[in-house]
Amino acid sequence: MRNVLDRMICLCGLVALAPLLALIAILVRCGDGGPVLFRQVRVGRGGRSFVLLKFRSMRVDNSGPAITAAGDGRVTKVGRWLRAYKLDELPQLWNVLRGEMSLVGPRPEVRRYVDERDPVWQRVLSVRPGITDLATLVYRNEEQLLGEAEEPERFYREQVLPEKLRLNLRYLELSSLARDWRLLVLTVGYSLWPKGFTPETVLRRLAA
Question: pLDDT tens digits, residue range 10-63?
Fold first, then answer.
């Protein structure tokens, strides 16, 4: 039932957002002439790989860490705007329509950060990944946190990722359609008005 509802919402969303999607595609293309979409292999439900879609926010030649910290020189001018309002994530509506993702669920990671032998990861990978979830919303300012770390990738592995996994498990225990709906509303709200964001407010409203 939830999968059917996800697909119906995404289909309506893709139709309603078509003008915005077209505008973003033009801006990305005109920015540096590169491809509009960024494709990256992520780990989905059951450990299966799939190709996650985003609007491209980095230069075509973007070799470097798999994570992005604030001030990363690979991010384009258009990309900074897209990332600030999370508009680069909109193509994942297509991933949901294809059944590879849900609207709400643990964010899919690249395989280098996934340990399928770990019971925590096994629980997280037992459900379909999502466009947003509690951990994603709490760590909406992740790039800023990584930008302040001396070793961003190490900080991500040792501090951020374990906490995100803990939040994933916590939310899976509390998951309900009503709570998912509130999470989606908060995600859209903080995407449009990011200045009002605080992790404490998110936790209070969603994980109590």
Answer: 999 999 999 999 999 999 999 888 899 999 999 999 999 999 999 999 998 767
Q: Amino acid identity, residue 93?
A: L
- Total number of domains in the chain: 1
Q: Which domain holds residue 133?
A: 2-206
Which residues fall within 8 angstroms of residue 25, CB to CB, at 6 or more apart? 36, 55
Closest by alpha carbon to 190, among 140, 131, 132? 140
pLDDT tens-digit series, residues 130-163:
999 999 999 988 988 898 888 999 999 999 999 9
Residue 161's contacts (CB-CB under 8 Å, 6 or more residues apart) are 109, 113
What does pTM read for this prediction? 0.91
Radius of gyration for the chain, computed over Cα atoms and rounded to the nearest angstrom: 16
